[in-house]
Design a protein that fits this description.
single chain; alpha/beta; FAD/NAD(P)-binding domain; seven-stranded mixed sheet; 12 helices; globular; binds flavin-adenine dinucleotide; HpyO/CreE_NAD-binding
């Protein structure tokens, strides 16, 4: 019987495991992280490289370790202080390689890889009526007292409607498709159109503009914002005042979060790269949409919504991921364990413990982290810092329930 099984070994799953082990309340033998990748954090590292990201958008105090200045100490201790990039009106931000090397250092220092089991979780069941959970992969099962779902941003890339009737070998790909290889895509002999209007599209366009001519096609004017939400959303006090006062599971919580997140924006340091590429003549920004496209022998023939068209192009989509609640495991868990889902299918959580509530109102043994926890953890839930907030509440909830267990068993023990 494990104490915790964390489903997903990305930024959140790894950070949570680090906090649980660091608290001294759990041993490696009591904890498992199940993830199909061959290494923890591999999903984030792959995505970051696929889109040509050079630096984190968040600051140097946002990382997977428990001590806020851990990354800065790591950087200066390894002679890499210059990889903390100065940013106007914002704390320094780490380069991607510094962030990842520090994360690997944390994983090694705490032997977190010892907790990692490779596998994809297909179901979670309750074999003994609420006393424990069973986490199932195709190969094995784990019995555990608690589960945390840390499944990431969304299950599948989002494809616009016009892409549906397209052969597999068409010159069309999505940046979040498994196996997307930016190096191979730069070898295309024709024009490249990057579709999207946020940071991922902008970074991808800048990367490609170093080798070929690129058109960045956005549905809306490009907008600039540095953080993904105001840093005051890091604080529980602010989250409790502005989110927890709204009814759990309500559309009002979503609306408030949508209104304060800087979604589909581009930070100034990426906007500067875009402007430089435009000035060099390597990149053009076009506001509009593709209405249809046909595969030809030498790329795509693309028609835009304004009626104009262009031939011999490859299209790279940076159009995001399907919503996190659409993950099949979320539906399976909710249906099998009788858990409550609110507006837009998000789990309804106990705001204090982050336990996913049963439809009868009681806390279940399942918690969530990352984007799935947004309606309780707020607009930065999906970000690196969101994992730290979840870890704090999990540890508070655990020490309370362990304390209760101890108190209940003490008389018999003493007797
Ligand atoms: C390119 C990029 C740059 C970003 N930059 C920043 C930044 O600078 N600052 C910031 O704060 N945030 C940033 N974010 C947002 C956020 O921090 C990252 O998306 C982060 O990876 C989220 O962590 P996660 O653990 O929720 O998801 P992931 O890191 O994607 O991990 C989810 C894991 O769950 C696993 N999984 C899914 N389903 C199953 C299953 N059924 N069984 C087992 N395992 C499963 C996946 O394999 C994956 O490893 C960025 C996001 C992206 C995509």
């Amino acid at each position: 019987m494990y104490e915790y099984v964390i489903v997903g070994g990305g930024v959140h799953g790894t950070c949570l495991a680090n906090y649980l082990i660091d608290s001294g309340g759990y041993t490696h033998d009591e904890l498992r992280i199940v993830d199909p990748r061959d290494a923890l954090l591999a999903s984030f590292a792959t995505k970051a490289r696929q889109c040509g990201m050079r630096t984190l958008r968040s600051s140097f105090v946002h990382h997977i370790d428990t001590e806020p200045f851990s990354l800065e100490t790591f950087a200066t201790g390894h002679g890499r202080g210059d990889e903390l990039v100065a940013t106007e009106d914002y704390p320094n931000r780490p380069t991607l390689e510094l962030f990842l090397d520090h994360a690997r250092y944390v994983i090694d220092r705490r032997d977190l890889a010892d907790c990692h089991v490779q596998g994809t979780v297909s179901a979670i069941t309750e074999p003994d009526h609420g006393e424990s959970l069973r986490v199932e992969t195709d190969e094995r099962a784990f019995d555990t007292r608690r589960v945390v779902l840390a499944l990431g941003l969304g299950p599948q890339p989002t494809y616009p409607e016009w892409t549906t009737p397209m052969p597999d070998d068409a010159a069309l790909t999505h940046v979040w498709e498994e196996g997307f290889d930016p190096t191979a895509a730069t070898a295309f002999d024709g024009r490249t159109i990057v579709v999207g209007g946020g940071i991922t599209a902008a970074q991808l366009a800048c990367r490609f503009a170093e080798q070929t001519h690129v058109t960045l096609l956005s549905r809306h004017d490009l907008e600039t914002a540095l953080p993904e939400a105001d840093p005051q959303w890091i604080n529980w006090g602010h989250i409790e005042t502005h989110i927890h006062t709204l009814p759990a599971g309500s559309q009002a919580r979503h609306d408030r979060i949508r209104n304060v997140r800087n979604d589909a924006t581009i930070p100034p340091y990426v906007m500067d790269r875009l402007t430089d590429a435009c000035n060099r003549g390597d990149l053009a920004v076009r506001i509009g949409e593709i209405s249809c496209a046909h595969a030809t022998g030498d790329g795509l023939l693309v028609r835009f919504a304004d009626g104009r068209s262009t031939a011999t192009v490859q299209v790279l989509l940076a159009t995001g991921l399907e919503p996190a609640p659409d993950h099949p495991l979320v539906s399976q868990v909710a249906e099998t364990l009788g858990l409550e889902r609110g507006a837009n299918g998000f789990p309804v959580l106990n705001d204090r413990t982050l336990a996913w509530r049963r439809t009868d109102g009681a806390d279940s043994r399942v918690s969530v982290s990352g984007m799935l926890a947004e309606t309780t953890v707020g607009p930065l839930a999906r970000n690196v810092i969101g994992a730290r907030r979840v870890a704090e509440r999990l540890l508070t909830g655990c020490s309370e329930s362990r304390g209760q267990r101890r108190t209940a068993s003490e008389p018999a023990h003493l007797g």
